[in-house]
Amino acid sequence: MDNYWKNKELEIITLEQMGFEKSGKDFPSIQFNEKIVKTYDKTRDIPSLNGTSRMGVHLRFGTVSIRDLVRRSKSLNQVYINELIWRDFYMMILDQFPRVEKYNFKQKYDKLEWRNNPEEFKAWCEGKTGYHIVDAGMRQLNCSGYMHNRLRMITASFLTKHLLIDWRWGERYFAKKLLDYDLASNSGGWQWSAGTGTDSQPYFRIFNPDSQQKKFDPNYTFIKTWVKDLNTKSYPKPIVEHTFARNRCLETFKKV
């Protein structure tokens, strides 16, 4: 035994020594909340409520099993199960069609003429579009690393259809900010909103931000939480008028 090379026991370095720092962001609990899942179909679209399971970040990092979530929720709420299916569906799409990471699933839209205005993109990123529900969603993302799913659809639709900015710009921004970022779900969701992906909403379906606000945050409960400068002189005017933006979007997509 004396002839074996004797190694000095190596010290296990800490996360701090590797350069990691605590973000201070709220990390959702790993505990499965049956009460929330039971009412998921009724509360999931209301951003001011604690109506979603917040399991996305744990699925992203593998701290919970998708099979375990299905087993626990299959007798509780079919709508919740459907959302888990969407997640695996987008994973299958990315596996079978890896080009969707950077290119449109519907290849005819590769010819789409995006406006890609950098100043308007900056305003969207900072939550300064003048549309309350859009700005609230973006400010929630920037401050917390999380955005409610209904708001992900609203903000993505606004960027791609009101401003005609390439969905890849928004996808990359979400990738930098979301704690639960998942390439398959993120690219799939963005292409769904833009109308360029598989089983996506049609290009002529364009969310009206004001109508979305009246439907899902009628009392401004969520908006007031994140848009502190609401109703002040510093709050920006709408970056674009809805009807004008809608018509411009329709004309652009029809050209393809």
Automatic annotation (TrEMBL):
Give the species: Ichthyophthirius multifiliis (White spot disease agent)
Annotated FAD binding sites: 40, 80, 83-90, 180-182
Q: In this chain's numbering, which residues are marked as the site (Electron transfer via tryptophanyl radical)?
A: 114, 167, 190
Q: Which UniProt keywords apply?
A: Chromophore, FAD, Flavoprotein
Q: Which GO terms describe its molecular function?
A: deoxyribodipyrimidine photo-lyase activity; DNA binding; FAD binding
Q: What is this protein called?
A: Cryptochrome/DNA photolyase FAD-binding domain-containing protein
Q: Which family does it belong to?
A: Belongs to the DNA photolyase class-1 family.
Q: Needs which cofactor?
A: FAD
Q: How is the cofactor bound?
A: Binds 1 FAD per subunit.
Q: Which GO terms describe its biological process?
A: nucleobase-containing compound metabolic process; response to light stimulus; response to stress
Taxonomic lineage of this organism? Answer: Eukaryota, Sar, Alveolata, Ciliophora, Intramacronucleata
